[in-house]
């Protein structure tokens, strides 16, 4: 299936958003025309996402359940056959104009991952797509104007929205005709060029989401998505997103946070492969799990029960006490996994360096296996809702927050405070969403309680911690959200 081409905005956005989005698209086209003296040919659009459940388990191969939001990246594009230059501009003047040249089939474009540079995200999409465009003799020159509304560093996946929209712009400009699946898979790998070893949840949610549905994303044996209808309850359920306004840029803190967590989970998988005599040792906890149960009678297999059993077994296998203590040194991990320290360093810590003295494998394993279980429980609750579906979903979200905080150490005091306030003011569940260490929280409430919840958050969190915020900034920080649609090409403007 390829990315849809639309000529009216109501195919992309909820009716309630059209009043905002119409003028935004008009302004983009106008500004593009003024800047480049030509009209755009199309607009590529890819949204941010909010993850409902399944945090930090995508890179271990376990399924997750995000949904797209209205906030997105839109890129107006015109092409030329006269050259192969790429001209980038952003409606936000904070991001200065950039230009670069196509460097030929092998390199495509050089990305300096040591620099925190906004155009790197575009280059990721550009490089990813053109590296695979074998039949293309020469790519088009491009004129681009970008407008992003996903707050950067907020955990709503501004980076994936940008990379996916960029990749889509390159596909459309060069008539590459790729499917959604190809776009997503390439965008996942391409985004790692900026220096963060991220999983595939964000790109999948950005490309595949549909209005009114959450998206189930599986990664093993291969990327597969399916739509999940949220339960109909009375009064209806609603999700609110609140940004703690603690900026958590994955790129900046990667060696101590995100990239380190990826390494810790891989070490845990290597250790369990050895300790549990896994036939096909793997550094993916999902693959370890599959292998461990592969000979079990299918009648005894139950994904929730399997994860629980694997965790119980894992906890007794780890040396030292099952709390995990301060973690293991690199030499201890080498001993436990049977992989020399030098090999571990080369394989897992060179392209994406980490900074730590200890690797907390027990705590990370606890989080991954229980979180994977929560995703299945959440999905099952949506698919066959029990009478107390609303409370059940809320409890699952709260348990996820607890585990992110205590086992995965990816929460922070501000996230905990926001979740607490939310639960005291009408949210049945509240948790961080995205990588954590700041950024956004997502809460589950009922439609009739949304206003009270937002008011309480403004008074008890924002007014107290950020008294200087304007009303407009406050409305931007805390908002109700609905499942939105994924990537699209928009052509409904005067050309
Ligand atoms: C970031 C990454 C995702 C995922 C989340 C945590 O958003 O890009 O791949 O790992 O963090 O769930």
TrEMBL record:
<dbReference type="InterPro" id="IPR019741">
    <property type="entry name" value="Galactokinase_CS"/>
</dbReference>
<feature type="domain" description="GHMP kinase C-terminal">
    <location>
        <begin position="390"/>
        <end position="462"/>
    </location>
</feature>
<dbReference type="Pfam" id="PF10509">
    <property type="entry name" value="GalKase_gal_bdg"/>
</dbReference>
<dbReference type="GO" id="GO:0005524">
    <property type="term" value="F:ATP binding"/>
</dbReference>
<feature type="domain" description="GHMP kinase N-terminal">
    <location>
        <begin position="120"/>
        <end position="209"/>
    </location>
</feature>
<dbReference type="InterPro" id="IPR013750">
    <property type="entry name" value="GHMP_kinase_C_dom"/>
</dbReference>
<dbReference type="GO" id="GO:0004335">
    <property type="term" value="F:galactokinase activity"/>
</dbReference>
<dbReference type="InterPro" id="IPR000705">
    <property type="entry name" value="Galactokinase"/>
</dbReference>
<dbReference type="Pfam" id="PF00288">
    <property type="entry name" value="GHMP_kinases_N"/>
</dbReference>
<dbReference type="InterPro" id="IPR014721">
    <property type="entry name" value="Ribsml_uS5_D2-typ_fold_subgr"/>
</dbReference>
<dbReference type="GO" id="GO:0005829">
    <property type="term" value="C:cytosol"/>
</dbReference>
<keyword id="KW-0067">ATP-binding</keyword>
<protein>
    <recommendedName>
        <fullName>Galactokinase</fullName>
        <ecNumber>2.7.1.6</ecNumber>
    </recommendedName>
</protein>
<keyword id="KW-0547">Nucleotide-binding</keyword>
<dbReference type="InterPro" id="IPR036554">
    <property type="entry name" value="GHMP_kinase_C_sf"/>
</dbReference>
<comment type="similarity">
    <text>Belongs to the GHMP kinase family. GalK subfamily.</text>
</comment>
<dbReference type="Pfam" id="PF08544">
    <property type="entry name" value="GHMP_kinases_C"/>
</dbReference>
<keyword id="KW-0119">Carbohydrate metabolism</keyword>
<keyword id="KW-0808">Transferase</keyword>
<dbReference type="InterPro" id="IPR006203">
    <property type="entry name" value="GHMP_knse_ATP-bd_CS"/>
</dbReference>
<keyword id="KW-0418">Kinase</keyword>
<keyword id="KW-0299">Galactose metabolism</keyword>
<dbReference type="GO" id="GO:0000411">
    <property type="term" value="P:positive regulation of transcription by galactose"/>
</dbReference>
<comment type="pathway">
    <text>Carbohydrate metabolism; galactose metabolism.</text>
</comment>
<dbReference type="InterPro" id="IPR006204">
    <property type="entry name" value="GHMP_kinase_N_dom"/>
</dbReference>
<dbReference type="GO" id="GO:0006012">
    <property type="term" value="P:galactose metabolic process"/>
</dbReference>
<dbReference type="InterPro" id="IPR019539">
    <property type="entry name" value="GalKase_N"/>
</dbReference>
<dbReference type="InterPro" id="IPR020568">
    <property type="entry name" value="Ribosomal_Su5_D2-typ_SF"/>
</dbReference>
<feature type="domain" description="Galactokinase N-terminal">
    <location>
        <begin position="30"/>
        <end position="78"/>
    </location>
</feature>
<dbReference type="InterPro" id="IPR006206">
    <property type="entry name" value="Mevalonate/galactokinase"/>
</dbReference>
């Amino acid at each position: 299936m390829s990315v849809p081409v639309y000529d009216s905005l109501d195919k992309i956005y909820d009716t309630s958003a059209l009043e905002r989005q119409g003028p935004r698209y008009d302004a983009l086209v106008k500004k593009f025309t003024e800047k480049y003296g030509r009209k755009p040919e199309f607009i590529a659009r890819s949204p941010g996402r909010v993850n409902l459940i399944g945090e930090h388990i995508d890179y271990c191969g376990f399924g997750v359940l995000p949904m797209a939001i209205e906030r997105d990246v839109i890129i107006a594009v015109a092409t030329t056959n006269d050259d192969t230059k790429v001209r980038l501009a952003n409606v936000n003047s904070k991001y200065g104009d950039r230009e670069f040249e196509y460097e030929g089939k092998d390199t495509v474009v050089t990305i300096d991952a040591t620099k925190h540079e906004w155009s790197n995200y575009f280059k990721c999409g550009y490089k990813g797509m053109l590296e695979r465009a074998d039949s293309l003799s020469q790519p088009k020159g491009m004129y681009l104007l970008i407008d992003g509304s996903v707050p950067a560093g907020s955990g709503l996946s501004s980076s994936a929205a940008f990379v996916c929209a960029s990749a889509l712009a390159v596909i459309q400009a060069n008539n590459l005709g790729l499917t959604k699946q190809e776009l997503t898979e390439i965008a996942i790998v391409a985004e790692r060029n900026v220096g963060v070893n991220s999983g595939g949840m964000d790109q999948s949610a950005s490309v595949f989401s549909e209005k009114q549905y959450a998206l189930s994303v599986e990664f093993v044996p291969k990327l597969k998505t399916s739509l999940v209808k949220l339960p109909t309850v009375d009064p209806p359920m609603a999700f609110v997103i609140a940004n703690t306004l603690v900026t958590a840029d994955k790129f900046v803190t990667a060696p101590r946070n995100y990239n380190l967590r990826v390494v810790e989970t891989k070490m845990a998988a290597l250790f369990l492969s050895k300790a549990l005599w896994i036939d096909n040792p793997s550094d993916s906890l999902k693959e370890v799990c599959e292998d461990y149960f592969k000979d079990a009678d299918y009648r005894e297999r139950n994904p929730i029960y399997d994860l629980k059993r694997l965790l119980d077994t894992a906890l007794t296998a780890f040396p030292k006490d099952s709390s995990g203590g301060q973690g293991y040194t690199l030499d201890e991990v080498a001993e436990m996994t049977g992989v020399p320290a030098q090999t571990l360093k080369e394989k897992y810590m060179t392209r994406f360096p980490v900074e730590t003295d200890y690797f907390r494998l027990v705590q990370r394993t606890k989080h991954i296996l229980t979180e994977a279980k929560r995703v299945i429980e959440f999905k099952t609750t949506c698919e066959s809702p029990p009478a107390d579906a609303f409370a059940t979903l809320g409890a699952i979200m709260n348990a996820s927050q607890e585990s992110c905080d205590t086992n995965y150490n990816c929460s922070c005091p501000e996230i905990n405070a926001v979740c607490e306030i939310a639960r005291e003011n009408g949210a049945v569940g509240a948790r961080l969403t995205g990588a954590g260490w700041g950024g956004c929280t997502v809460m589950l409430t009922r439609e009739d309680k949304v206003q009270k919840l937002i008011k309480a958050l403004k008074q008890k969190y924002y007014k107290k911690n950020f008294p200087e915020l304007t009303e407009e900034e406050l409305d931007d920080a805390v908002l109700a959200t609905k499942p939105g649609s994924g990537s699209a090409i928009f052509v409904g403007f005067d050309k």
